[in-house]
Design a protein that fits this description.
By secondary structure, the protein is an all-alpha fold. It is built from 21 helices and two strands.
């Protein structure tokens, strides 16, 4: 492994141990199936080349499920799928390659592609097309946490005016909160095309690129944000933002540090957010935490900022700082109770501490707002750790009402 930051982490060391352990089990498929039902939960958050973790998980989200929800979403295999893979020889080659790949991931060497993001396609049979003011309805639905319906309403409004950059930006935010950063990128690119000076779109797309582990595109987006911001025109550099694919992370960070130094007495919270993202990418979580704390002091009612701060704190190696993440998530939820990403992150934080009952309540609460498969998967994981096979079986019905006899949520 070439990346010492990752190679020496407990997560990667754990994976190595699991490989050695499983190598001894190749002739015992039944044991492998049992392992799939239990211990696989420990390593199922190895990311695809996609999503960093739902609200900051940086490279750390590659290591831990706790680093979730603003920067990483990992599709989790079922036990049956894992057991089937376990029995094939190709699995072992792929598994060992995966471990090597994890150690080699850095913001500098991660492959990226503009081509992977397809043009956004509106949904068919949209019931909001006949609505008199679908964009106003979309914002109300979004604020109430009804993401799927708000997405349809935003699409209906945009079908009437494809040049509305703000509406594209709001749709992108909704797709991102709905754990579809791939779609969010496609939408936010439309927002930028409609208005190249839309600073919010550049910030949002940089977060989605981070979740998608398209690090060079993160740097390009942040540079675009800086170059289009009239407050920092004196820092503009002659970067070819389309053709230059060798942008140096240190150089981009230095530019934002220079921007921050322009007004030390009254820090710009947006500069601090961008720096927080960059520091997360370099696993400098202490500095990232300082940036988000500075930003949240300026914007104390920004629920997404509190969630970013919490997710950054969750990545810390300091146990006291990890505990502070719980408070940050709760502050996010105080400001927007329907923000399911923060509920999910809080559930993961409780789960990592062995507080499974509270974790279950968090995921059930999230499911009452947004019926996401991701939440069902995590809820099932909680019940497995509780050794409650009866509740695991109930999850297969995808009906949260059956759990009200067991939990208050």
């Amino acid at each position: 492994m070439n990346n010492p930051d990752l190679s020496n982490t407990g997560f990667v060391q754990y994976l190595k141990q699991e490989i050695n352990h499983m190598d001894q089990k190749k002739d015992a498929i039944e044991k492998g199936k049992h392992w799939a039902e239990t211990d696989f939960e420990k390593v199922q958050n190895v990311p695809r080349s996609e999503d960093w973790a739902r609200d900051f998980s940086g490279n750390q989200n590659i290591r831990s499920q706790e680093m979730v929800n603003e920067f990483t979403r990992t599709p989790l295999s079922t036990a049956e799928e894992w057991a089937n893979d376990f029995s094939t020889s190709s699995f072992w080659n792929n598994w060992n390659k995966l471990i090597d790949d994890i150690g080699n991931i850095t913001p500098q060497n991660t492959p990226f592609s503009y081509e992977k993001y397809k043009p956004y396609v509106f949904s068919e049979d949209n019931p909001y097309l006949s609505h008199s003011d679908p964009l106003a309805e979309a914002k109300e639905l979004f604020d109430n946490g009804n993401l799927s319906e708000s997405i349809l309403a935003f699409e209906a409004g945009l079908s009437k005016d494809m040049t509305n950059s703000e509406a594209w930006c709001n749709l992108g935010r909704a797709q991102a909160e709905n754990d579809r950063d791939d779609l969010a990128v496609s939408v936010l690119r439309q927002a930028i095309e409609a208005d190249p000076s839309n600073l919010e779109a550049y910030q949002l797309i940089s977060v989605s690129y981070t979740n998608d582990m398209q690090f060079n595109l993160v740097f390009e987006s942040l540079l675009s944000w800086l170059n289009h911001n009239p407050l920092y025109t004196n820092l503009s550099h002659d970067f070819d933002l389309i053709g230059n694919r060798q942008i140096d992370q240190e150089n981009v960070t230095d530019l934002f540090i220079s921007a921050a130094h322009l007004n030390m007495e009254d820090p710009d919270p947006e500069i601090q957010v961008c720096l927080g993202l960059l520091y997360n990418l370099s696993s400098n979580f202490h500095l990232a935490e300082d940036c988000f704390k500075t930003a949240v002091r300026k914007k104390p009612n920004d629920y997404q900022l509190w969630n970013k701060l919490g997710a950054t704190q969750a990545n810390s190696r300091d146990e006291a700082t990890k505990e502070e993440a719980l408070d940050s998530y709760c502050r996010a939820l105080e400001r927007k109770p329907t923000f399911t990403r923060a509920r999910s992150n809080l559930g993961i934080a409780f789960m990592s501490r062995g507080n499974y009952e509270e974790a279950a309540k968090c995921f059930l609460g999230a499911l009452t707002i947004n019926d996401s498969e991701h939440f069902w998967v995590n809820l099932t994981r909680v019940f497995r750790r509780m050794k409650r096979n009866d509740l695991v079986n109930l999850c297969t019905y995808r009906d949260i009402e059956v759990f009200r006899q067991y939990f208050v949520f």
